[in-house]
Design goal:
alpha/beta; Rossmann fold; DNA polymerase, domain 1; two-stranded parallel sheet; 13 helices; 9 strands; globular; rRNA (cytosine-N4-)-methyltransferase activity; SAM-dep_MeTrfase_MraW_recog; methyltransferase
Length: 307
């Protein structure tokens, strides 16, 4: 799902959750272009804001959005790698509010030149951290087995034509390796019969989603990040997670339930909060967003029994 720049998704719902804890230390775990960061400091101008993004380009854009604002601490990192030591380095004793927005910025699709888009010719890359040297989308389609490609397309794209598309990729790459995003677009278009194309999206959308998730290990980092950051919350601290498709929402839902089962947290949203019709009209990218929240419990203090 593409998130429009500078238009934070579910703004009033995010603030509704944040106000429960009246936060002093806020962490925007996926800063993007700074939309939610700006919203949070507008609401809590005295708060300290930690902005995190794994993409150095995006973190710079977020910093520009936040120029001249109060106490802002940018950290280039995957949010799943933030730990107590990172916070201690900036003098943070613990977090009162954490926001994890699992959407992908519109910038990546329009301006990054990394092959996220379906619309223009770009290298088949899709890395959110190109400086690290992880496998690219081209590496995956050029060197994965047919069964591995099928698994990726089914598991991360929920694509019913996964095996057929995987077979087409194997046959095509025997003649020429894939290097450009449009080569995958055209292959998917030719692999799925026209009468089975989705009505509202391009037929290659699910395949591109699957490749992006596999390249960046997005679902693994989502669960790891939720668990790690939940451990950095202060008593009564709140974590809010925004997801944009069923795979992400499932991870948020079950990880929150697991944390609640431990006895240390309370799920605040029995059902996910979703955008209003008015918000969807203003920002179409919000239409599939779901927000869930969880709060760290205050420990119950028991007096020692007399011997």
């Amino acid at each position: 799902m593409i998130v429009s720049p500078h238009i934070p998704v579910l703004p009033s719902e995010v603030i509704q959750l944040a106000k429960i804890g009246n936060p002093t230390w806020i962490l925007d775990a996926t800063a993007g272009e700074g939309g939610h960061s700006s919203l949070l400091l507008d609401t809590f101008p005295e708060a300290n804001l930690v902005m995190v993004d794994r993409d150095a380009v995006m973190l710079e854009r977020a910093k520009k959005t936040m120029e001249g604002r109060g106490k802002v601490f940018p950290i280039r990192s995957n949010f799943s790698e933030i730990d107590r030591e990172c916070l201690e380095e900036i003098g943070c004793p613990g977090l009162d509010f954490v926001l994890i927005d699992l959407g992908v910025s519109l910038y990546h699709f329009l301006h990054s030149g990394r092959g996220f888009t379906l619309k223009q010719e770009e290298p088949l890359d899709m890395r959110l951290e190109p400086q690290i040297g992880n496998r690219t989308a081209a590496d995956i389609v050029n060197f994965s087995s047919v069964l591995e490609l099928k698994r990726i397309f089914q598991e991360y794209g929920e694509e019913r034509w996964a095996l057929r598309i995987a077979n087409q990729i194997i046959e095509t790459r025997k003649k020429k390796k894939f290097t450009q995003n449009q080569e995958i677009v055209k292959l998917v278009e030719s692999s799925i019969p026209r009468k089975f194309w989705p009505k509202d999206t391009h037929p290659a959308t699910r395949i591109f989603q699957a490749l992006r998730i596999e390249v960046n290990q997005e679902l693994e980092h989502a669960e790891k990040g939720i668990r790690n950051l939940s451990g950095l919350l202060q008593e009564n601290g709140i974590m809010a997670c925004i997801s944009f498709h069923s795979l992400e929402d499932r991870i948020v839902k079950w990880t929150f339930r697991d944390l609640q089962a431990s006895g240390s947290f309370t799920v605040l949203t029995k059902k996910p909060l979703i955008p209003t019709d008015a918000e969807i009209r203003q920002n179409r990218a919000s239409r599939s967003a779901k927000l869930r929240g969880i709060q760290k419990n205050v420990p119950i203090m028991c007096e020692d029994e007399e011997s």
